[in-house]
Design brief:
The complex is a heterotrimer of chains A (175), B (598) and C (396). Chain A contains five helices and five strands. The relative contact order of chain A is 0.11. Chain A has 175 residues and is of the alpha+beta class. In chain A, 30% of the residues lie in helices and 25% in strands. With 598 residues, chain B is α/β, with parallel strands linked by helices. Chain B contains 22 helices and 21 strands. In chain B, helix 19 links the parallel strand 14 and strand 15 (471-472). In chain B, helix 7 (201-209) crosses helix 11. In chain C, helix 5 (119-147) runs antiparallel to helix 12 (280-304). The interface between B and C is large, with 47 and 52 residues.
Chain lengths: 175, 598, 396
């Protein structure tokens, strides 16, 4: 793993490599170099298998994290490439030309996080949510509870009590 | 080009034509496996309505509702879980986390009903056909715990190191230990009602978990201005009802409180508690006695902008906390930390002033807008058995006070202490230390009416006293102190069979046959204290509402019938620091109400 | 891979020319084309998803998959729940084999929290995962046979699957959703007599599987419909992210149990089952042999599993368990391929993000859309089942 990273550093600017366990590491690459780096990993280092592509919303830091998890079928190691992109105008270069399933991932990310991948086939087509009008639902600022309370109605007859509050009411209401 | 075999082979299927069907003949009455997670059962007499089942349920399928026949009382919220099977997913986490092990799942899984609302019921309270089924899902054993039932051990001084000196025994939790201990809390809040001051216990424990000790201190001061003190010597009634204690050790609530107070530096209190700028009201309140209730009242009155003056008979503040509790339990440094903070809010103390002698109550009434009295119980009670008037018979409270004041205290080689409460343990252990210093060995014995299981002293006090080589021999009633001139020979006792009658009233019964003699050179009585209300002028006393036993009657605001006079602490509620603090707080609010309306 | 087999996919002389995007120009006004919806309610679809098929005659010209009929937003729901409250949810991501979710979720969390699971619990987890694989294969084999017209196989294997579900009920207290692998350990030791009953069930399964082989696999009709059909080119394995039996049938011995060993697999004796021809028949046969290997693995586990011991490690109080900040990926070999949980913690009581990687995601969308083109409408169901996919793990 260490040699792979050392190799990588000769060609790319890799920031903050973190070895999670023996066969799994994460590194951060900038948006500009990421696709080149991933292509390099796939074609020259042998990370041929794209395990997953997903996003994490770091709303406090105003950016999305994209995680490309790559697997090396011979060395049996995984490398996660983390890319931070601005939350204001979330856009990332597409990798649909590298892996066939990437276009599905990118379509889903477009729908669930609102991250655009210009050039990715069918990226604007709804994938899971047809006719969705709210903000992309997997963003942190989408409140599922509020949405469900707005959309569905609760079953009548439910009431609950907080033990401490209830005991206060019963045992020492005036204190 | 299919092979012949590929055409013939599928006919193998025909051999199953004559096979017995595998279908279950009566599927509605098929019994599920022993561990099957079916409908809920709840042992409603074990359940305390702590609500951890509700808080772990990710489906919000559990509500806590009042149930007929279950009363709200100490340690029991009176609520019971109601399960909504429209939401339940039968994961059984409610069973795993149940603090009393009352909740379980039966292995019944078929139930047909036309009314959808019947699928929402209180297990245990509404009878169901599976209530008596033994089988079903219960909390697994074999190291399976969702929270740690074991208490984080407290570091204490070795008995050999502590029995010669008065340095503090309990070392206090480290950050790691405190966080581990705080982690065990299930945040049910059952303890809050039992705490006389109704402290926000779950909140300050949460502050420890979040490593936000400033917030913890704020929570403490909401209801208790003496956290260093209470964190050491509180009678911690909260721990007796802790839900985790039902099947494990209760949370160490007292030590956690102490941890918060210890970790916050005194210099920063005002900043943390936001008490740097208080708005004065211009009104003045006099407080008699600087014990817990007086200090508590002064603190909350000062926060509300009242100018408070405390009148203290002794040369130092703290009342029983300083003059009744030995230093090995409550170091003066910590006592002063709490008191000095209250003084820093603008509270003034006048030491060595006795009301009725140096200044009269009438004068206070004229000089101040209101008066609070928290004079406490400082007069030792006597057993009044023959021989108690001998000069070698002492009162525990007097001796404890003299030790603090630095006076010469009589320490004989063989001492018998009569009493089984915390004060008895305090004097026993203090004398043991002094004996060790003077004679190099311990020769003190404590005996009480109550047998070991009902001794009022805290359990750890008894254990620690024994560790320090004091003898504790409970269950005896004193008959006579044998004396010979100015010498004391010892104490004659008989077996005490029971202390209380059926109505739980004090009515000790003895077995005169079983006798014992404890040889001693000195006897200390510690069977309780009485109050000294001599500072109240006789004429005034007659106007004041009092009960037959001579105790002042107060309303919910701790206001006496005189209106301007408020009273609290031990003289109202009996000896207990945390009650005193609670009284002082309530009285402060009562005084505020009285003065605002005036 | 023989030339003959590839031909089925490559022989395009009958069909219209492709445009620059690699698709045919569909002109509905020409009345040559027909659009039909295959699913979401269709017995040949594994779970609720639908295929929007464009047909020319009875040949599929174009296919678009539609998912979302089962979307419950689990990944988002988990962000609003404490870690322990996610535990009853995760099993619902993949209905027919919930245990892989439980395992991946628990192990990711344990890795971030630095918790060592007791020995007995590791063995029990291994057992439950293999039992889950066994019952999932048994359900699948009925589906595969049924989608190609052999109803009887399903009747047998659903009975066999029920035997395993009985054992699940006994061990975990649940038949379908077991909720057994709690973070930190498991929820119970083997009940008394479990080994005996399990062994009897395994004997029964092995006996029946011989008949299944004779009736289903040594069957001229089945062979006729599956040999040379739906070939996955080994060259597609990495570009499409194909894993599990789908990859192994193409001759690529991918198996997480061997590649990245977890739990007690290093102590078990097994070799990944591989095939050669990569058609529907080979995939079915690989799964059948995999099923028998699972039976063998369970027998091995039964001899090694301890009867006593702690079943759960000491963990923080689950009501406010803060998992240290960090991220990790935990994977397991499920019946259909690589199953994994990508977990990101920000150090609070709630997970920051949990992403489920199910093999169906790649198999049922990108791969299926490619393979289904030029298939006969009558083979669509068989083809789809041969990929062994579950829609709920696509839409999580």
């Amino acid at each position: 793993m260490q040699t792979i990273i050392e190799n990588l550093q000769k060609h790319f600017q890799v920031v903050s490599y973190h070895q999670q366990r023996e066969n799994l590491g994460f590194l951060i690459a900038s948006k500009e170099v990421a696709v080149g780096l991933i292509t390099h990993l796939r074609d020259y280092e042998g990370f041929a298998h794209l395990v997953l592509l997903t996003a994490v919303d770091w709303i406090e830091d105003e950016h999305f994290q994209l995680t490309y998890l790559l697997h090396h079928p011979e060395k049996k190691v995984d490398l996660g490439v983390r890319v931070m992109i601005s939350r204001e105008n979330p856009e990332m270069y597409s990798i649909h030309h590298l892996w066939e399933q990437a276009r599905t991932y990118q379509r889903e990310l477009r729908e669930m996080f609102g991250i655009n991948f210009p050039g990715s086939p069918d990226v604007d087509k709804p994938f899971i949510l047809e006719g969705w009008e709210e903000i992309p639902p997997y963003r942190r600022d989408f409140d599922t509870k509020e949405y469900s309370e707005k959309t569905y109605f609760p079953r009548p007859g439910r009431e609950t009590h907080d033990p401490a509050e209830y005991m206060k009411k019963k045992l020492y209401p005036n204190e | 080009m299919a092979k012949l075999n590929d055409i013939l082979s599928p006919f193998t299927a025909w051999k199953h034509v004559v096979r017995e069907p595998v279908t279950i003949k009566d599927p509605l009455n098929r019994e599920a496996a022993d561990r099957y997670r079916g409908f809920h059962k709840n042992d409603i007499s074990e359940c305390i309505g702590c609500g951890t089942c509700e808080s772990i349920c990710q489906n919000a399928a559990i509500d806590l509702v009042p149930v007929e026949g279950v009363d709200t009382k100490d340690g029991d919220s009176g609520l019971r879980p109601r399960v909504d099977y429209g939401r339940c997913c039968w994961c059984g986490l409610c069973v795993d986390v149940c603090t009393t092990n009352s909740l379980s799942l039966s292995n019944e899984y078929t139930w047909v009903d036309e009314d959808p609302d019947s699928f929402r019921f209180v297990p245990g309270a509404e009878n169901k056909s599976w209530d008596n089924r033994e089988k079903g899902y219960k909390k697994p054993g074999n190291g399976y715990e969702l929270y740690n039932p074991k208490r984080e051990a407290m570091e204490e001084l070795e008995p050999e190191k502590r029995d010669q000196s008065f340095i503090e025994i309990v070392q206090g939790y480290s950050k790691e230990q405190a966080e581990q201990e705080a982690d065990r809390c299930v945040e049910c809040g059952i303890c809050v009602a039992t705490c006389p001051a109704h402290m926000g216990i779950p909140e300050y424990i949460k502050a420890i978990r979040n490593d936000d000790l400033n917030e913890g201190l704020r929570v403490l001061y909401d209801t208790n201005p003496l956290p260093e003190i209470c964190g050491r010597i509180c009678t911690h009634k909260c721990e007796t009802v802790c839900s985790v204690g039902h099947h494990g050790d209760p949370l160490s609530i007292r030590w956690l409180k102490r941890y918060i107070a210890d970790q916050n530096p005194a210099e920063e209190y005002k900043k943390i508690l936001n008490t740097e700028n208080l708005q004065p009201t211009g009104k003045k309140v006099a407080i008699i006695g600087s014990g817990p209730s007086g200090l508590s009242a002064a603190h909350y009155l000062a926060l509300m902008g009242y100018q408070c003056t405390i009148y203290e008979k002794l040369p130092a503040a703290g009342g029983m906390m300083r003059f009744g509790i030995p230093e090995y339990r409550l170091p003066y440094e910590q006592l002063d930390k709490d008191i000095n903070y209250i003084l820093s809010l603008g509270v003034e103390i006048k030491y060595n002033v006795t009301i009725g002698k140096d200044i009269t109550l009438e004068e206070l009434h004229n000089q101040y807008d209101a008066v609070f009295s928290g004079t406490g119980l400082h007069m030792g009670r006597s057993t009044r058995v023959p021989g108690t008037d001998h000069p070698k018979v002492y009162q525990a409270v007097d001796l404890l006070r003299d030790i603090v004041l630095g006076k010469e205290v009589p320490v004989e080689e063989n001492i018998v202490v009569i009493g089984g409460g915390n004060v008895a343990m305090d004097i026993t252990r203090s004398l043991a230390r002094l004996q060790k210093q003077k004679y190099g060995k311990v020769g003190v014995l404590a005996t009480s009416l109550e047998s070991e299981d009902i001794m009022p002293a805290d359990r750890e006090e008894v254990i620690e006293a024994r560790e320090e080589n004091a003898v504790i021999d409970p269950g005896w009633g004193p008959v006579e102190i044998e004396t010979e001139g100015d010498k004391l020979k010892g104490l004659h006792v008989v077996k005490c069979v029971s202390v209380f009658d059926e109505n739980r009233r004090f009515a000790p019964k003895f077995d005169e046959e079983q006798k014992k003699f404890f040889p001693a050179d000195m006897v200390v009585e510690s069977i309780g204290q009485g109050m000294d209300l001599s500072y109240l002028p006789e004429a005034f006393k007659e106007q004041l509402d009092m009960d037959q036993r001579g105790r002042i009657l107060v309303n919910d605001d701790f206001q006496t019938s005189a209106g301007w006079l408020f009273a609290g602490g031990d003289i109202i509620q009996g000896p207990d620091v945390i009650h005193g603090i609670a009284n002082g707080h309530k009285a402060a609010m009562g005084i505020d109400k009285y003065l605002s309306e005036k | 891979m023989s030339k003959k087999l590839l031909k089925w996919n490559e022989d395009r002389t009958l069909f219209p020319e492709k445009n620059s995007e690699g698709k045919i120009d569909v002109d509905y006004d020409s009345h040559k084309f027909m659009k039909i919806w295959h699913g979401p309610q269709h017995p040949g679809i594994t779970g609720n998803m639908s295929l929007e098929l464009t047909l020319l005659g009875d040949e599929v010209m174009d296919c678009e998959t539609h998912v979302g009929y089962l979307h419950r937003g689990f990944e988002k729901l988990m962000e609003r729940r404490k870690y322990i409250q996610c535990f009853p949810i995760v099993c619902r991501v993949a209905v027919p084999e919930p245990d892989f979710n439980e395992y991946c979720f628990a192990s990711a969390m344990e890795e971030l929290a630095g918790i060592e699971v007791p020995e007995a619990a590791e063995w029990l987890r291994t057992l439950v995962l293999e039992m889950s694989r066994l019952q999932s294969f048994l359900a699948w084999i009925g589906g595969q046979a049924g989608s190609l017209g052999q109803g009887i196989i399903g009747q047998w294997t659903i009975y066999l699957r029920d035997l395993i579900l009985d054992r699940f009920e006994e061990l975990t207290g649940g038949r379908i959703y077991h909720m057994y692998m709690l973070p930190g350990g498991v929820r119970g030791l083997l009940p008394d007599g479990f080994r005996q009953r399990m062994t009897e069930n395994l004997d029964e399964i092995e006996k029946f599987m011989k008949d299944v082989k004779k009736v289903m696999f040594d069957n001229a009709v089945f062979k006729k419909r599956t040999v040379g059909m739906g070939v996955i080119d080994p060259a597609w394995i990495n570009p499409f992210g194909i894993t599990g039996p789908n990859a192994r049938a193409a001759g690529v011995a991918k198996d997480v149990r061997k590649d990245n060993p977890y739990l007690k697999y290093p102590e078990l004796d097994f070799e990944p089952v591989v095939g050669k021809d990569s058609d529907i028949y080979t995939r079915a046969d690989v799964r059948r042999r995999d099923l028998l290997m699972t039976v063998d693995l369970i027998r091995q586990i039964m001899t090694k599993i301890p009867d006593k011991g702690d079943i759960r490690a000491k963990t923080p109080n689950v009501l406010h368990w803060k998992v240290p900040a960090g991220e990790t990926y935990s994977r397991a070999e499920c019946t259909r391929g690589e199953y994994g949980y990508y977990m990101v913690s920000d150090g609070t009581e709630y997970p920051r993000r949990i992403n489920v990687r199910g093999p169906s995601y790649t198999h049922a969308v990108a791969l299926l859309e490619k393979m289904i083109v030029n298939a006969n409408i009558a083979d669509v169901a068989g083809l789809m089942v041969s990929l062994h996919t579950y829609p709920p793990e696509i839409e999580r």
